[in-house]
């Protein structure tokens, strides 16, 4: 920005980009290196001397990758849907209505932001066991159990409330005069108008649940029940010290995130100024 | 109409309220009650022990070590994140197509999960990993990044900083782009050099956002778990165990649920206190700004 000396800023940018990208490239390079090829070389060997697919094949055969992917995708979708729905319902109620106990509800929301999930995790785990939301009762209950803790967030509710606060009430009043019901006004009028906020909330929620490891590690252990994060840790146990195979597995499990990022990057790294205008 | 309007908010709130009860209120009450019970003799019929779990946690050397490790990590991470994310924000701000394309690349570490980041770096930091083979090329002896008590916390901090900096960079860029161009132009006319412009214009304008970054980064650093689980498993000899690692170990490996619940609530209290201090500091900052 204050580019008096463009070379300095080119140098700086190159440095940070290299640091950000290097670990990915190293993993990619390792995953294609032949079994006989030395991993520790001076200087480091970036281009595999004997490139091979065999590690990918091995990992794909050893672990149910597609099942991991489906588990992650379903759980993340369920949780994000719940989170956005709850945020919209509560956000609109808090922004557009006055009711008894409103202050109390606000207090509850702020409390959720202070108490870390790790504190609630143990009782939640017990409840999920009691409700039968584990792999023992089947895949669908497990999915629900995995998504449950992420299906509501104080942060999301406040985000939607804030967006609705900034919305002039004319549109809803016009719809009301046209005889639209409460839910027609919510889904037909308010939600389309706060779409940027909902997209942001969905993305945040998606990234958070997709990356969850702690909660998923409690509920899953059998290969068929694992998500991509817990599966990745399993991979480490399976191929104990062969970094070529661990790398191949990591690259495979990384692909969905990169794809998601590729599609969503416009929303993710757009500065707020652009979103507002 | 008016009776309808009265029940409408409750209708809307029913689902969010039930969800909050299920995933927040009930577990919190249970955590408080569990923290007064001893599960070690019988997991299914725990004994009431009052505040014994709390005194046990607070006097336990393991907890003290975990608290110390967590604070050391915070001391490494917070200044590095503040400096690097500011520097990155200055370098990658701007509306040009080319710059926003580059922004995609530096943002990559933010998008992947912590588990993937842990794996990437476990391999970079391994005995025969990239870092050591680079060092060998420079004739420097290998560093046992993850297996030496002296290096393990800096190594974990490095991974966290690598993963998180671009996230905070984006927060700072949104603020940077709001600074009126005219301020820089007039400063330039007055003969201020780049460093002076940064110190007298950019930094004061960024202060509020930097405080927010510091707060989010602090809370995040206190909760470090997955990175430790993947990189070291808490070793060597417990030197990288964090607070959440301690809690996890007590609860799910030793099934000492009472101790874990008590440790969790102490942890929550720590977070509340830190947040209040931070709030107070930023409020004072705003007051001073208002007064001047």
Describe this structure in a few short sentences.
The complex is a heterodimer of chains A (about 280) and B (about 290). Chain A has about 280 residues and is mainly alpha-helical.
Key structural traits:
heterodimer; A: 277 residues; mainly alpha; 72% helix; B: 292 residues; two-stranded antiparallel sheet; globular
Explained architecture:
- The complex is a heterodimer of chains A (277) and B (292).
- Chain A has helices spanning 6-31, 54-62, 65-96, 102-114, 117-131, 139-147, 154-165, 170-177, 182-193, 195-210, 214-219, 228-238, 243-268, 272-276.
- In chain A, α3 (65-96) crosses α6 and α8 packs antiparallel against α9.
- Chain A is built from 14 helices and no strands.
- Chain A is 72% helix and 0% strand.
- Chain A is an all-alpha fold.
- With 292 residues, chain B is mostly helical.
- Chain B is 76% helix and 1% strand.
- Chain B has twelve helices and two strands, in the order αββααααααααααα.
- Chain B has helices spanning 2-34, 52-59, 61-92, 97-111, 114-125, 130-137, 152-176, 181-189, 194-222, 226-231, 243-253, 257-291, and strands at 37-38, 47-48.
- In chain B, a hairpin with an 8-residue loop joins β1 (37-38) and β2 (47-48).
- In chain B, α3 (61-92) packs parallel to α7 (152-176).
- Chain B is globular, with a radius of gyration of 24 Å.
């Amino acid at each position: 920005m204050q580019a008096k000396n463009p070379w300095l800023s080119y140098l700086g940018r190159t440095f940070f980009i290299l640091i950000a990208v290097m670990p990915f490239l190293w993993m990619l390079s390792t995953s294609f290196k032949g079994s006989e090829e030395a991993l520790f070389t001076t200087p480091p060997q970036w281009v595999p001397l004997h490139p091979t697919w065999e590690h990918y094949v091995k990992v794909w055969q050893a672990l149910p990758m597609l099942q991991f992917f489906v588990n992650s995708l379903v759980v993340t979708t369920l949780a994000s849907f719940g989170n956005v729905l709850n945020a919209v319902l509560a956000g609109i109620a808090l922004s557009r209505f006055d009711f008894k106990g409103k202050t109390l509800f606000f207090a509850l929301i702020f409390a959720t932001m202070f108490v870390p999930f790790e504190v609630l995790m143990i009782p939640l785990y017990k409840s999920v066991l009691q409700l039968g939301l584990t792999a023992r009762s089947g895949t669908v209950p497990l999915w629900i159990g995995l998504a449950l803790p992420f299906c509501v967030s104080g942060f999301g509710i406040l985000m939607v409330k804030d967006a609705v606060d900034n919305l002039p009430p004319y549109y809803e009043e016009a719809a009301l005069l046209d005889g639209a019901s409460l839910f027609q006004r919510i889904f037909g009028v308010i939600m389309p108008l706060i779409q940027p906020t909902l997209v942001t909330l969905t993305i945040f929620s998606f990234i958070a649940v997709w990356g969850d490891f702690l909660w998923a590690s409690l509920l899953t252990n059998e290969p068929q029940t694992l998500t991509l994060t817990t599966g990745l840790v399993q991979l480490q146990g399976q191929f104990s010290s062969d970094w070529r195979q661990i790398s191949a597995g990591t690259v495979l499990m990384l692909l969905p995130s990169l794809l998601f990022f590729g599609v969503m990057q416009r929303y993710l790294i757009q500065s707020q100024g652009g979103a507002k205008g | 109409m008016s009776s309808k309007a009265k029940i409408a908010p409750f209708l809307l709130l029913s689902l969010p309220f039930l969800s909050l009860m299920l995933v927040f209120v009930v577990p919190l009450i249970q955590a408080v009650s569990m923290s007064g019970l001893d599960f070690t003799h019988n997991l299914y019929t725990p004994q009431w022990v009052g505040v014994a779990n709390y005194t046990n946690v607070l006097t336990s050397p393991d907890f003290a070590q975990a608290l110390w490790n967590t604070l050391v990590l915070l001391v490494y991470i917070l200044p590095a994140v503040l400096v690097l994310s500011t520097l990155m924000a200055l370098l990658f701000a701007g509306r040009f197509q080319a710059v926003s394309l580059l922004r995609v690349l530096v943002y990559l570490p933010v998008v992947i999960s912590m588990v993937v980041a842990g794996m990437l770096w476990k391999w970079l930091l391994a005995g025969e990993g990239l870092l050591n083979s680079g060092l060998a090329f420079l004739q420097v002896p290998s560093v046992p990044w993850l297996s030496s008590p002296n290096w393990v916390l800096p190594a974990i901090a490095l991974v966290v900083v690598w993963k998180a900096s671009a996230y905070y960079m984006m927060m700072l860029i949104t603020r940077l782009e709001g600074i009126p161009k005219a301020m820089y132009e007039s400063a330039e006319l007055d003969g201020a050099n780049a460093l002076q412009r940064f110190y007298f214009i950019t930094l004061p304008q960024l202060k509020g956002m930097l405080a927010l970054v510091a707060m989010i980064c602090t809370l995040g650093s206190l909760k470090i778990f997955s990175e430790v689980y993947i990189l070291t498993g808490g070793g060597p000899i417990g030197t990288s165990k964090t607070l959440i690692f301690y809690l996890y170990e007590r609860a799910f490996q030793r099934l000492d649920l009472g101790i874990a619940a008590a440790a969790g609530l102490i942890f929550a209290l720590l977070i509340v206190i830190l947040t209040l201090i931070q709030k107070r500091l930023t409020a004072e900052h705003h007051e001073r700004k208002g007064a001047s």
